[in-house]
Amino acid sequence: MSKIYVVHCIDSEGPLHESLEATFERLKHIFHLDLEPSQELLIKLQTGSIDLGGLEKSVQKVVDPKILSYNDTWDKIDSMLLDALSKEFRYKYSDSQGNGWIYNWHCVDHVDYEINPRRRDMGFHNIFDHYKNILKKTNSKSDGLHFHFHPHPLVKNAALCATHWLAPSDKLYQILCRRIIDRQWFPCVNRPGFQVNRPDSNWFLEQFIPFDYASLAMEPNAEDEQQLDFSAGRSGDWRRAPISWTPYHPSHDDYQIPGDCRRWIARCLNIGTRSYLLTEKEVRDAFEEAKSGKPVVMSFANHDFRDIREDVKKVHKMLCKVGDDFKDVKFIHSDPINAMRNALSISRINRCDLKVDLKKIDDNSHILSVRTDTPSFGPQPFLAMKTYNSDYYHDNFDFQTPNHFWTYTFDSETLPIRAIESIGVAVNNSFGITTIINLDVESGKIRSTYLHDDT
Predict the structure, then answer these.
(1) What is the mean pLDDT of residues 68-78?
(2) Per residue in 404-416, is it b (16+ CB within 10 Å) or e — as a string?
(3) d(C-alpha 96, C-alpha 326), whole Å
(4) What pLDDT is stored for residue 455 in this prediction?
(5) HEC letters along 110-146
(6) What one-character-per-residue DSSP string does 287-345 give?
(7) Sequence-separated (6 or more) residues with CB below 8 Å from residue 362
(8) What's the CA gap between 273 and 296, in Å, rounded?
(9) Ranges of H-type helices in 184-304
(10) What per-residue string of b and e applies to 301-326 under the rule 16 or more CB within 10 Å gives b?
(11) For helices 20-31 and 39-47, angle between their N-to-C axes, nearest 10 degrees
């Protein structure tokens, strides 16, 4: 019996406010339409009754009333979640085996911005903690917390998109250091902000994160191409990637082309938004691929600042309708880690049981040693440090035995150990088991945390 693993990713970004003026600003940005904001004109744009020189349908997508109906407070999001996370709702949209719907929450941190016109919830851990708490409150054990990152624009405006992960801000490292040290958490699944991969993020992910739900690959669509923020590869850019529901290893120099990199990239189309949408045709393609014997992970993404329930209903309806034509193919609701493991038959290996030792060399230098018998996914673990001044730092290890043994020296060229309050080390293996070690420098106490390990 062939199987399709269905993965619902939610870019969990918290409340979002958009004024009438901001909606028209987006139309200007997306289509270069300079229109005078008014509710009357907005309604005409929504009905397609204004001549826009061939842009009418594309504009209708952007200003669809459902898309503009934002959850602009946490109260609105929580009201939606309490229903969507309920057992009754989940099992109303069960899979071929009778399992309830699974949500996968990819939490972003909105930090290091100076302009916040959409009233995003600013601060480290705010969104992560909110979802951790509500999943506990609703006993949502099947759902997982995962990673979502917004590249920082050159202008520190939280409403703008960007593509560069490693500049101009170090917020990527700040976020991950804090997740390791403050929350004993590190990602093994990525959902890229603005659907963007580029060489810098490609190489960063290759060091640390084995699963990447990123590709928007699909046949060219005239209406999508009319949206100038997506055209010519400006944002997203998956024009050369395989149009297939089978995950692939990317190339080192071009993440869109299958190659010899370690991580897996899955195709992840949109639902409930304006472009690169999951359609019945795409669902049918997933069933066809599964029937032919290919490993299929059918993933799709939406946002928590819109009503995710409508998207669940729509996707489930398509799955059931197409599934009636493929009696020998079953669709299975899944988290993103087990979907990759099961679809691709990834061999299970032991978790990385890190052996950590901090040794004094002399009064001015100490060496941190980190060892693992099980090879790490990437070439090194992620090193995080917190000072007594509550500053967070990331640095490279020194490689003693690649994938197995690393050291880091605290001295005058790095940071003196007397300045360090705590050290965090996080690593994934190729099976997607995450190991986090937290070392309290003063007491020497070590705390070990393991994620996604069924044992």
Answers:
(1) 97
(2) eebebebeeebee
(3) 12
(4) 54
(5) ECCCCECCCCCCECCCHHHHHHHHHHHHCCCCCCEEE
(6) HHHHHTT--EEEEEEEETTS-HHHHHHHHHHHHHHHHTT-TTEEEEE--HHHHHHHHHT
(7) none
(8) 24
(9) 199-208, 222-225, 280-291
(10) bbbbbbbbeebbeebbebbeebbeeb
(11) 50
Q: What is the pLDDT of residue 230?
A: 74
Q: What is the 3-state secondary structure (H, E, C) of 273-286?
A: CCCCECCHHHHHHH
Interatomic CA distance for residues 77 and 71, integer angstroms: 6
Q: Which residue has the tokens 């999943």?
A: 135
The helix or strand, by DSSP H or E, that contains position 269, with its residue range, turns out to be strand 264-270
Which two tokens mark 421? 């309050």
Q: Tell me the two tokens of residue 301.
A: 């993404």
For residues 454 and 419, the model is more confident at: 419
Sheet holding 392-395, edge to edge: 392-395, 382-387, 420-428, 434-440, 446-451
CA 376 to chain centre: 21
Please give the share of the chain, as a percent, with pLDDT higher than 70: 100
* Nearest residue to 238 (alpha-carbon basis) of 255, 223, 221: 255
Confidence check: pLDDT of 231 > 90:
no
Burial class of residue 41 (count of CB atoms within 10 Å of its CB; 0-12, 13-18, 19+): middle
Measured between alpha carbons, how far is residue 398 from residues 106, 244, 404, 410 in Å?
A: 31, 39, 12, 12
Instruction: Tell me if residue 441 falls in helix, strand or coil.
Output: coil
Comparing CA positions, the residue from 359, 424, 362, 370 lying closest to residue 392 is 424
Tens digits of residue pLDDT in 164-175: 998 888 999 999
Mean pLDDT, the chain, rounded, equals: 96
For position 218, what pLDDT does the model report?
A: 92
Residue 179's pLDDT band (cuts 50, 70, 90): very high
pTM score: 0.95
Q: Residue 44 is inside which H or E element, if any?
A: helix 39-47
* Cα-only R_g, the chain: 23
CA dist., res. 117 & res. 20, Å (int): 12
Phi-psi region for residue 112, left (φ > 0), alpha (ψ -120 to 50) or beta? left
Run of H or E residues at 43? helix 39-47
Bridge partners, residue 331, by sequence = 4
Residue 78 exposure: Cα atoms within 13 Å on the Cβ side: 11
> With 60 as the cut, is the pLDDT of residue 135 above it?
yes
Q: Which two tokens stand for residue 102?
A: 């699974």
Chain-centre distance for alpha carbon 442: 35
